[in-house]
Amino acid sequence: MLMEESPRLLSGGNPQIPKGEGNAPVQAFLDAVPAGWKQALCRRLDALIVETVPGVRKQVQWNTPFYGAPDDDGWFLGFHCLTRYVKVAFLNGAALDPEPPVSSKQDKPRYAHFHEGDEPGEQFVAWVRQARLLPGEPL
User: Fold this and answer.
1) How many angstroms from the chain centroid is the CA of residue 1?
2) CA-to-CA distance for 99 and 118, rounded, in angstroms?
3) Contact, 124 vs 59, CB < 8 A?
4) Which of 61, 127, 133, 139 has its CA 20 to 30 A from that of 2?
5) Mind listing the pLDDT tens digit for each residue in 103-129?
6) What is the DSSP string of 5-65?
7) Are 98 and 122 in contact (CB under 8 A)?
8) Domains of the chain
9) How many CA atoms lie within 13 A of 73 on its CB side?
10) What is the pTM of this model?
């Protein structure tokens, strides 16, 4: 009987997942996030994005799930597991009101960090609604 190998975890617990288009690679990413608060949070982020943006496009690239509006070729959001938090990247975050709290070395992206016990709430959903309406970023 062949045993399926588990995805390798990178530093911070982010799974190393092959790139791919669609929901299946994103679900593989979510399944590979270590069980516990990070996996629950990543699944919650995915569910909120799907609920907020009907028909959202998904892909995994650079071991990160990305989300795009159904009527746009670009991407508006991605997230990544780090040791103490999950980092949500709004690719055009500087155009959101209010801007997500963590700045970038680049002009457009802004980040929100979710730690153990944090619940992405109304502000996260408001950012997703706004970000979905902006031109997406190519990857």
Assistant:
1) 35
2) 18
3) no
4) 61
5) 999 999 999 999 999 999 999 999 999
6) PPPPB-GGG-B----EESHHHHHHHHHHSPTTHHHHHHHHHHHHHHHHSTT-EEEEETTEE
7) no
8) 18-133 (3.90.1150.200)
9) 2
10) 0.93
